[in-house]
Amino acid sequence: MNAAGRPEGLEELPLRTGEDVVRLRKAVRDRAVALGFSLVDQTKIVTAASEVARNTVDYGGGGTMRIEVLRDGIRRGVRLTFSDEGPGIADIGKAMTDGYTTGGGLGLGLSGAKRLSNEFAITSSPGKGTVVTLARWK
Ligand SMILES: Nc1ncnc2c1ncn2[C@@H]1O[C@H](COP(=O)(O)OP(=O)(O)OP(=O)(O)O)[C@@H](O)[C@H]1O
Ligand SMILES: [Mg+2]
Q1: 89 in ligand 1 pocket by Cβ < 6 Å?
Q2: pLDDT score, position 9
Q3: How far apart are CA 107 and CA 109, in angstroms?
Q4: pTM here?
Q5: Is the pLDDT of residue 105 over 60?
């Protein structure tokens, strides 16, 4: 157990402000370094995390991100779960399309985060919120 009374390797961060996104980037980077990720893989997971985190803040009305350390035999990885209770996404296929935005962005955040991850899942119910899960293995 760690200081917060959670199993070792599990951490949950609040995600409400731009400063929270900065803290989250650092937490993900630290975790990737501790797991021995290459600089390229560190940058991929931090960039993916940052995009999804900004969406959680900008569109989801804030939420949380959970970091989990993964082990599969000798393989190690990290899984990030972003949850919010915002308006949700009516058409996930559209939201995942390059260039689709409802907020005046580039519409590349979700599709980019998927390309930078080894595993990516998104579930959303309109009116209830959105959960995005991504994982990257070393
Ligand atoms: N957590 C969320 N809650 C509600 N809608 C979301 C959420 N995340 C994404 N969306 C919707 O999906 C669209 C696409 O997201 P994506 O990150 O790909 O692009 P963007 O944020 O609009 O622009 P960019 O990330 O390139 O600056 C958003 O414009 C928004 O409509
Ligand atoms: Mg975005």
Answers
A1: yes
A2: 77
A3: 6
A4: 0.94
A5: yes
